[in-house]
Amino acid sequence: MPLLENHLAVITGAASGIGRAIATGFAREGARVVLLDINEQGAAEAAREIREAGGKAESFGLDVTLREDCRAVAKTIADRVGQVSVLVNNAGINRRNAFTAEADAVIKDWQDIMAINLNGVFNVTHAFLEPLRASKGRIVNIASIQSFVHVRTPNSPAYTASKHGVLGFTRALAAELGKHGVRVNAIGPGLIETPLNEHVRNTNPQLVQIFLDHTPLGRAGKPEDIVGPAIFLASDLSSYVTGSIVMADGGYRAI
């Protein structure tokens, strides 16, 4: 029996990268998936590919920074699709300006990154809270190795702060929602090859090498490397797991 049969899973940032891979993997395991992304066309294309492969998928455009839009899309899904039982908060961005860079750029980085990476997780989770409570659902937040450390590469401190916040939010919700049967966990990816970091990887091989030199497995991850942990946390395989983070970082935090 597929691990996610009879589940309705919503994935943010699902037009590409990790979110798209998770949506595809969930559909293979029998879930009906709803792909949300500010890139509405990309989400629609990904949903179409899932349907063509025999899966069940819908998509909607969503800017996770807009709280009222999050509530509206949650209502639309409830009315048109069904009761959500799995939520994956994956939407996120990164910037690589140092804190000592030009002031306006640093301030904009902070505002933009926090709005998407942390406030966006709050907005979406709050919008879907009632169906998740009703279904005794599962929430999977995409955190980072930077939920623990600030990596030794040019990197915005806002990103590190936001991902620390995601892990803290995960633990706080797990403690509060456990009595409702809702499990809340996170995944901590290391360097994953996605469109989000493609330009940096292509133009700054030294940065990539810094990551690889600190990664026991000696390679960058692929979006598909996050799918297994996501299925585990969304399925009954992890029925007694909550408030945890599953690291998928090639061993980065081991050394």
Write the layout of secondary structure elements.
Layout: E1 8-12, H1 17-28, E2 32-37, H2 40-52, E3 56-61, H3 67-80, E4 86-89, H4 103-127, H5 129-134, E5 138-142, H6 157-177, E6 183-189, H7 198-203, H8 205-213, H9 227-234, E7 245-248
Parallel strand pairs: 1-2, 1-4, 2-3, 4-5, 5-6, 6-7
Helix pairs in contact: 1-2, 1-9, 3-4, 4-6
Description:
The protein is α/β, with parallel strands linked by helices. It has one domain (8-250): NAD(P)-binding Rossmann-like Domain (Rossmann fold, 3-Layer(aba) Sandwich). It contains nine helices and seven strands; from the N terminus they run βαβαβαβααβαβαααβ. The chain has a seven-stranded parallel β-sheet with strand order 3-2-1-4-5-6-7, sandwiched between helices. Helix 1 (17-28) packs parallel to helix 2 (40-52), helix 1 crosses helix 9 and helix 3 (67-80) runs parallel beside helix 4. It starts with 7 loop residues before the first strand and ends in a 7-residue tail after the last strand. The model has no long low-confidence stretch (mean pLDDT 96).
